Amino acid sequence: MQNNLAYNAYTQNQMGVESPQKLIEMLYEGLLKFCSRIKISIRNEDIEQRTYYIKRATAIFVELINSLDYERGGDVAYYLNGLYTREIQLLSLANLKNDESKVDEVINVVRGLLEAWREIHQDEAVAQ
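Now predict its structure.
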């Protein structure tokens, strides 16, 4: 149910997305893109760009939190809520301390989530 809110909001503002599953994949990909730009901004000592991309990445994590379905997702949804919240904290620390290693931690987590997401939904497509 909550997933549909994120999906509907996105499709109204952007191009059509074939499914809510594809939207989540795109959000994870967006996080990776913004995190790489955060790292570049840190290296270039560009505070304005660093802050801009941290805000964008944080907004994606907030959207992911808002799209969690606690009724159907159960413990996994609660786990993801905590994980996403921790990633927001790491981004805040990266911004505060100009620390690229905090961004690397976020990238590692998001890569793992993206790989798992793709694997789960690839298996679902094969089963249908």
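Residues 44 and 81 are 32 Å apart (CA to CA).
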